[in-house]
């Protein structure tokens, strides 16, 4: 079959064209794949960064709302302001725990006498940190929640 020069030249040309097409296709695939992966990585990184900023702003705004209650917590009846902040901030519950083991919560009107807020992690961690904190936790109902706690400290 490849006995003539013409057949050999045609075969060589076909082989060269096939090799060129395969090499070009493979190169294009590698370049497009790499470019696609880099674009996906950039988009994911950007999304993660944007979400981190949004979560940081959300936490900061909630912490500011709770921090604004420091003076209110020491008044004889903090409930009206606690309810207002709960509504304005979209909080599930807003409360105050006192060192004398008493507490007041907007969504828990009949607190059992055995309830000790000073034994709760939100109380202990806020006192220990000495500043506003956010503590994620799973509630007894299985819901994922975030507790915002601010220690109320005044000079005696």
Automatic annotation (TrEMBL):
Gene3D superfamilies: PAS domain. Residues 1-23 form the signal peptide. It comes from the Bacteria. Keywords: Signal. This is Methyl-accepting chemotaxis sensory transducer. It comes from Paraburkholderia piptadeniae. The lineage of its organism: Bacteria, Pseudomonadati, Pseudomonadota, Betaproteobacteria, Burkholderiales.
């Amino acid at each position: 079959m490849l006995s003539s020069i013409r057949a050999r030249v045609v075969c060589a040309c076909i082989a060269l064209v096939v090799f060129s097409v395969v090499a070009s296709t493979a190169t294009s695939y590698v370049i497009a794949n790499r470019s696609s992966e880099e674009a996906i990585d950039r988009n994911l990184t950007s999304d993660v960064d944007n979400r981190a900023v949004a979560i940081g702003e959300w936490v900061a705004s909630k912490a500011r709302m709770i921090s604004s209650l420091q003076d209110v917590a020491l008044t004889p009846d903090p409930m009206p302001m606690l309810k207002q902040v709960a509504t304005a901030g979209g909080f599930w519950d807003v409360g105050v725990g006192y060192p004398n083991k008493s507490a007041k919560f907007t969504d828990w009107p009949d607190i059992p006498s055995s309830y000790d807020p000073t034994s709760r992690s939100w109380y202990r961690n806020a006192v220990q940190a000495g500043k506003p904190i956010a503590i994620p936790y799973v509630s007894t109902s299985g819901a994922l929640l975030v507790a915002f706690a601010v220690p109320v400290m005044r000079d005696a």
